[in-house]
From TrEMBL:
It is found in: Endoplasmic reticulum membrane. The keyword Transferase applies. CDD domains: LPLAT_MGAT-like. One of its GO terms (cellular component) is endoplasmic reticulum membrane. Belongs to the diacylglycerol acyltransferase family. InterPro entries: DAGAT. Its EC number is 2.3.1.-. One of its GO terms (molecular function) is diacylglycerol O-acyltransferase activity. It is a multi-pass membrane protein. The chain crosses the membrane at residues 20-44. Pfam families: DAGAT. This is Acyltransferase.
Length: 335
């Protein structure tokens, strides 16, 4: 295989963009296990007190992720996120106002491999979420497993992430006065296995938990489609029925996380590696769907709102697809 090396004379801005994305990829692929290793390693060194004191603090702070986390504006506003935004680039597109007197559930589609669009738009200040939607605070959901890693749990909480279990996700929505937006990558870990370039398959047909959560809490629903999310990585062919997909599904059902075998480019060459391609992402925030509080919705009411949400997501896709490089004959497929 011929290796296409990066030229030596690359502008500093592009090098900083690559560095910013490299640290983000490492954070989500290797930082959690590294933090676990460091925590236990320190116990057998003269710095053992660090891990002991952290364990004491952890026991006191254990429920913080379930109570809205502890976003650190300093981290969310770091200059490196601007470099990450410009690497692809990533743009947040507003189609309607979101009244800060209400709470919202934003359904993010598709998940992609590493949800780059969701993280950059809703966990950092780089794409202007606060300016586009003044008065709203966004909370991106992440698998509860990651909040059990020492040190790493603090990093992701500081970035505005909270666990995706029912109680944790509902906590911001129960706050009176509005101003909270919970962002859910609805397709989750399973949809990551379907994140192949050129595909527009959304795992939504049977996903109704987030619809019910919105109804129970009286939070308005907002469909979000991230054009380009599936274009960032190639993935080893894993069609349903193959041994690879069987193994991936099995691991996902046991561990709760998926293991897509993805690849793209490297840091110093463009032929292989785990760095995403430089391809644009346009995350389009749709119009809000009004939802009345209903703590015990009937199945028919749940199904009706779910169908309305799918219809609105389809409209959003159709209205913007040609603008962002999708063929006019391409349809959004719900699975």
């Amino acid at each position: 295989m011929k290796v296409d090396f990066a030229p030596l004379e690359i502008p500093l801005q592009r090098r900083l963009q690559t560095a910013a994305v490299a640290q983000w990829v490492f954070s989500f692929l290797g930082l959690a296990p590294l933090c676990i290793f460091i925590f236990f390693y320190l116990l057998f060194t003269r710095f053992w007190l660090i891990s002991v004191l952290y364990a004491v603090w952890w026991s006191y702070d254990y429920d913080t992720p379930a109570r809205g986390g502890q976003r650190l504006p300093l981290l969310c506003g770091l200059k490196m996120w601007d470099y990450m935004r410009d690497y692809f680039p990533i743009k947040l597109v507003k189609t309607a106002d979101l009244d800060p007197r209400h709470n919202y559930v934003l359904g993010f589609h598709p998940h992609g491999v590493l949800v780059a669009g969701a993280f950059t738009n809703f966990c950092t200040y780089a794409t202007g979420f606060r300016e586009l939607f003044p008065g709203l605070t966004s909370y991106l959901l992440m698998l509860p497993l990651w909040f059990r890693s020492p040190f790493f749990r603090n990093y992701i909480m500081w970035a505005g992430l909270i666990p995706s279990d029912k109680e944790s996700a509902s906590y911001p929505l129960r706050k009176r006065g509005g101003g909270n937006a919970v962002v859910i990558a609805v397709g989750g870990a399973v949809e990551a296995l379907n994140a192949h370039p050129g595909t527009y398959n959304v795992l939504l047909a049977q996903k109704k938990g987030f619809i019910k959560m919105a109804m129970v809490n009286g939070a308005h629903l907002v469909p979000v489609f991230s054009f380009g999310e599936n274009e960032l990585f190639d993935q080893v062919e894993n069609k349903t029925g193959t041994w690879l997909r069987w193994a991936q599904d099995r691991l996902q059902s046991i561990m709760g996380i998926s293991l897509p075998l993805f690849h793209a480019r490297g840091i110093f060459q463009y032929s292989f590696g785990l760095m995403p391609y430089r391809r644009p992402i346009h995350t389009v925030v749709g119009r809000p769907i009004q939802v009345q509080r209903n703590e015990k919705p009937a199945a028919e009411e749940l199904d009706a709102l779910h169908q309305l949400y799918m219809d609105e997501l389809s409209k959003l896709f159709e209205e913007h697809k040609e603008k962002y490089g999708v063929d006019k004959d391409t349809q959004l497929n719900f699975v």
